[in-house]
Write a structure and sequence with these properties.
Layout lengths: L1 E6 L2 E6 L6 H7 L18 E6 L6 H6 L2 H5 L2 E3 L9 E5 L10 E4 L8 H4 L3 E6 L3 E7 L6 E8 L9 H11 L2 H21 L1 H8 L3 E5 L1 H8 L19 E5 L5 E5 L9 H12 L6 E5 L4 E6 L5 E6 L20 E8 L2 E6 L7 E2 L1 H13 L13 E3 L5 E3 H25 L5 E5 L8 H7 L8 E5 L1 H11 L2 H14 E3 L8 H7 L7
Parallel strand pairs: 1-5, 7-10, 10-12, 13-21, 15-23, 16-18, 21-22
Antiparallel strand pairs: 1-2, 3-4, 3-5, 6-9, 7-8, 8-9, 11-12, 13-14, 14-15, 16-17, 19-20
The protein binds FE2/S2 (inorganic) cluster.
FE2/S2 (inorganic) cluster binds next to loops.
Length: 504
């Protein structure tokens, strides 16, 4: 059976066994379809249009599309098992961008190897976004960065969905997608700054990533990480040369606990570099939120909260990443919404910061009750964009997981932090009054947004001598006090209480 795919003006053709799942064949043939829910039929991101041929309409298709859309051929590719030759259109809005975005910093123009030294190559290996940067040898500030969506997103928006995929189909495809993402970023830097790139190449690439990303990259077994009590195969730092990256040697940071990985090790280093007064708390928000409390008595209490993709617009019916057209700021006055979108484009959906604003303002204006009830099941934001009761619920689950983890760690650490350092790309665009309003963080503690602490920290780590790296990681090893949330007696009660929208 033949499948012809029209993608961004290009036509691809491949064969597929009769009755096989269309999404699998698109992905196996490198068509980067977004499958945020991992093929469960719930995210509605894997949409395609059948231009010629036939696939039956499934019950999930009926939930995702109106009658008129079904009639014009729209289907969820994860629910389609075609039995005839097909011509399929994959709309570019549903695919994953494969060209990195480059950000140049002011120091780049004046940087000279003879005067400033050979720069480092570092990487923040996020579940959603990957950043590869060349950093200044003195001080570790970035000179130039390449940002790209992690191509693993095609196997699921959150880490648990990808681990499930790896359990069923092996780690190979997850590793290959990560290497593809890294290669695209490295190639983009090589084109932009060939001389600096060539000089930095022999020093290798220092990578900070959570436990799952590190395990995928090194092709370690994920069997113990995917099931309770969620322990990685190894917590050791890694070092490996990849032929897929032209022989580049990749150094990974050690892991601290189940889902508290090298990105948190880097985050701790970034906070120590700020000379933060102890006790302090680090909250690195993402699909998996890592939290650390340094109690100032030589203990680092750590845990991770499986927040899921809601903060990044995933699993929200009209949610999207923080891209052009995403509602990123929302205020309400005089019974009307005042919205800002990224790049001032026409509103296409809602990203995480917009979602938090919308919910906070809706609760304040009593459009939604404090326990998350949405009268009529739908809250209209614009004639085209609404929040559904399920979206509100999805956010409540994510925020309660984060808040409960924060509350519990503070209690176990036995201190009230002087400051909460809020890290992560998503955190950079948040309005702190909305964050406080929805009760995302423990109340009454000053909050400071510190940007991508994982990237800052891995740059500092790369700049340390091998002896000082070892001293630092040995110290963390003696300070670490991991807390497994699900095993805490009071976790469930607190989780249910924290579902409420409330700052206290
Ligand atoms: S609905 Fe198909 S991948 Fe989510």
């Amino acid at each position: 059976m033949k499948i012809r795919v029209n993608l961004r003006g290009e036509t691809l053709e491949f064969s597929s066994p009769v009755g096989a799942r269309l999404l699998d064949y698109l992905q196996e043939n490198s068509v980067p379809v977004n499958a945020a829910c991992g093929g469960n039929g719930t995210c509605h991101k894997c949409r395609v249009r059948i231009e010629d041929g036939f696939t039956a309409i499934s019950s999930k298709d009926r939930e995702a599309f109106r009658e008129s859309e079904l009639a014009s051929g729209w289907r969820l590719s994860c629910q389609s098992r075609p039995k005839t030759n097909l011509v399929v259109e994959v709309p570019s809005a549903e695919t994953i961008r494969n060209r990195p975005r480059i950000a140049k910093h002011s120091d780049l123009g004046s940087y000279a190897i003879s005067k400033d030294g050979v720069p480092f190559l570092v990487c923040d290996l996020g579940s959603t976004g990957v950043v590869v940067a060349l950093v200044n040898r003195r001080g570790g500030a970035p000179l130039i960065e390449a940002h790209l969506l992690n191509r693993q997103v095609r196997f699921g928006a959150d880490v648990m969905t990808r681990l499930h995929h790896a359990q069923v189909k092996g780690v190979g495809s997850l590793q290959a997608s990560l290497l593809e993402t890294l290669k695209s970023c490295l190639d983009a830097l090589r084109v932009e700054v060939p001389e600096l790139f060539a000089a930095a190449f022999s020093g290798g690439l220092f990578c900070s990533g959570n436990s799952a990303m590190t395990s995928f990259l090194l092709n370690r077994s994920i069997d113990s990480l995917a099931v309770a009590p969620f322990q990685p195969d190894s917590r050791e730092a890694g070092e490996r040369a990849f032929s897929e990256l032209d022989g580049l040697v990749v150094h990974t940071l050690p892991l601290l606990a189940g889902f508290v990985g090298g990105d948190t090790v880097a985050g701790i280093l970034a906070i120590e570099a700020l000379a933060a007064p102890e006790p302090w708390m680090l909250v690195d928000i993402g699909t998996n939120t890592e939290i650390v409390v340094n109690n100032g008595r030589g203990e680092l209490w750590l845990s991770s909260a499986p927040a899921g993709p809601a903060f990044e617009g995933g699993n929200i019916s009209q949610g999207m990443r923080a891209e052009a057209g995403a509602i990123s700021v929302a205020r309400r006055s005089g019974n009307a919404w005042h919205l800002e979108t990224i790049h001032n484009d026409l509103a296409r959906g809602i990203c995480g910061s917009g979602l938090i604003d919308l919910l906070n303002e809706s609760v304040m204006d009593k459009l939604i009750t404090e326990d998350g009830y949405v009268p009529g099941g739908r809250l209209e934001v614009t004639p085209e964009i609404s929040l559904l009761a399920d979206d509100v619920r999805e956010f409540q689950l994510a925020k309660s997981a984060t808040r409960t983890a924060g509350d519990l760690l503070i209690e176990r650490a036995g201190v009230v932090p002087k400051c909460i350092y809020l890290a992560g790309t998503f955190a950079q665009n948040l309005r702190l009054d909305s964050v406080a309003g929805v009760g995302l963080l423990p109340p009454g503690i000053p909050v400071r947004v510190i940007g991508n602490a994982s990237l800052t920290g891995v740059s500092l780590y790369a700049a340390l001598s091998p002896e000082n790296r070892k001293k630092f990681t040995d110290r963390l090893e003696t300070m670490r006090r991991p807390v497994e949330l699900a095993l805490q007696d009071d976790f469930q009660d607190r989780f249910v209480r924290n579902l409420n929208f409330s700052s206290t």
